[in-house]
Amino acid sequence: MKRIVLFIATNIAVVLVLTIVTRLLGVDRWLTAQGLNYPMLLAFSAVIGFAGSFISLAISKWMAKAAYRIHVIDRPQNQVESWLVEKVREQADKAGIGMPEVGIYESPEANAFATGPSRHNALVAVSTGLLQNMRQREVEGVLAHEVSHVANGDMVTMTLLQGTLNTFVIFLSRVLGFALDQFLRRGDDERRGPGVGYLLGSLVCQVLLGVLASLIVMAYSRHREFRADAMGAQLEGKEVLLGGLRRLKQITESGGVIDNRSPALAAFKINHPTGVMRLFMSHPPLGERIAALERVG
Fold it and tell me: Is residue 140 flagged as an active site residue?
């Protein structure tokens, strides 16, 4: 799930746009005309929350291709491209999923990722750095891990989780914004709908609660990495996957090149922040993943 931060950022942007549009249409004023209508507010929050999440899922492949200028291999032009396509096809057949698109993107960093809206409409991409710094069997282990993400339906699962969190973020932000507005307008008997306190308070709360919700998504993403490792071991062999993870760890610890084209693209990277930033990691440390896979029978 190396693209999870990009997915969250896209989701937040889409939800904010939908929020602004609904406000311009007067939906918030209608919801608060006679005090908060909690059942209607919850339904409204669910519609906006899941819409933002599913729109983000629908454009996930397009976003990945645009962000990394991925060269999708339609017709292999050399031996490496032919091998990549055939290996992904072989693993996809074993996993029982549709053939994903296969692509390569220019980056000195050893990396790979999978994304897409469904098990039969996905993209598996690898960096040139990965191909240059890892042996063929090690790359095959990495590919098995990424194909496993597709087979496990991880993007769809994350979408449902994000949609649920969006619903509560939107709901609670408006409840808190309404409470702030009532506090600022205490003693005012006029019923004029939501005031500035509601508009600004709910917007700020939505952003802050959205950041907190992302911690839950990241924690679940880390959990899914272990599951993808286990399934990848079934597809390609435990030692093959361990070889790929150990090589990635070796590259990381030796000061492998980091691709800093955009902070937002950190979602795609196998990174290792420390301290509080560990809460925002989409992946567990490679050492933990290796230890967990070694314990698998």
Answer: no
